[in-house]
Design brief:
4-stranded antiparallel beta sheet, 8 strands, alpha+beta
């Protein structure tokens, strides 16, 4: 049977992570299971955890008045779901909904923030992994919004 630490260190997102930092993260982790169409979190809720997907697919969705739900992206096994836990006021800015049955590791945000504050090496290791993720997601959102709202005619 795999330990939480082994599972974390095997995740591509945490490739090359020092085992001692993996142990710190594992101390904040727990297993989750979500049935299809269940929400991992909802927009506006407190961002208490982020998730490492082990099985299944999760869509990130936003809602705008008078428009259908917009799917910003779909996350798959080995992806990370949620980054709002990093930045005050620690509230989700989208919904995350299971598209299929999902198994995931949930990492307690308050626990991990405390460990990052207490050990700058851990905080830096997390930021090195989350900063590129945030940039990729922001870029994907720009592209998605361009598809939805289109570009005005240059004429």
């Amino acid at each position: 049977m795999e330990t939480l630490e082994q599972i974390i260190l095997a995740q591509p997102f945490f490739a090359g992570l020092d085992p001692d930092i993996g142990a710190l993260i594992a101390g904040c982790a727990r297993n989750h299971s979500f049935e299809a169409d269940a929400y991992l979190f909802r927009e506006g809720e407190e961002a208490r955890e982020f998730y490492l997907l082990r099985e299944g697919d999760v869509s990130l969705e936003i809602h705008a008045a008078g428009r259908p739900t917009l799917v910003l992206g779909t996350m798959h096994p080995d992806d990370v779901v949620g980054a709002s836990w990093l930045v005050p006021p620690y509230r989700w800015n989208s919904d995350a909904r299971a598209r299929t049955r999902v198994r995931a590791l949930g990492i307690d945000a308050e626990c991990l923030r405390g460990k990052c504050e207490g050990d700058p090496r851990t905080g830096y290791a997390m930021m090195k992994r989350f900063a590129p993720l945030l940039v990729r997601r922001l870029h994907a959102a720009y592209l998605q919004l361009g598809d939805v709202y289109g570009r005005p005619d240059p004429a």
